[in-house]
Amino acid sequence: MLACAALVLVGCGRMGDSSWNPMRWGGAQQPQSLAPEGGYPTSTNDGRVPLAHVTSAKWDPMYEGRLLVVTGLGASKGWWDVALVTEVPMPPGRIRPDENGVLRLRLVGKPPLPDTFAAANPPNPASDTITAALTIPNAVLPSLREVVISGAGNAVTLRP
Fold first, then answer.
1. Domain map of the chain by residue range?
2. CB within 10 Å: which end of the chain, N or C, has fewer?
3. Cα gap 80→97, rounded to integer Å
């Protein structure tokens, strides 16, 4: 009986990867990483492209952190499905700046269908501005030095 208990303890110790470990007797392998199989996606292949111009960016206070509110202007009327996306692929809901404290975002959206009225007409800055927002949690703010939001033609830098 004492030998059996010692054998179980040895299997759970430093030799955890050995066949003596009772946790491996079922044959199931534990995942080695929390990353999805094949890694995180490296690009958004959903048809969204950068908006022509980022017009402004501002911070709004929130209980959970800060709300980054960005306005932009498309190359024509009729842009839709606009969002702020990170330049470096990150898991959904997990935002973090790079090692220098810079968070790089892109203002992207879907253009209107070709050969439509919206695609043929230039935007009116008074009525065709587009707004997108992104919540930056309190846990990220201490390591955040600046946010750079880019469009197709320009970039805006904002400090917290």
1. 49-158
2. N
3. 27
Residue type, 88: V
Residues in the chain: 160
Give per-residue pLDDT as tens, 67-93.
999 999 999 999 999 999 999 888 877
CA distance 59 to 160: 7
Residue 113 has pLDDT above 70, yes or no: yes
Own/partner contacts of 37-44, CB < 8 Å, gap of 24 or more, are: 40/89, 40/90, 40/91, 41/89, 42/89, 43/89, 44/85, 44/108
Gyration radius (Cα) of the chain, Å:
25
Strand partners, 131: 71
- 3 state DSSP class of 8: helix
> What stretches of the chain show up as alpha helix (H) in DSSP?
2-12, 117-120
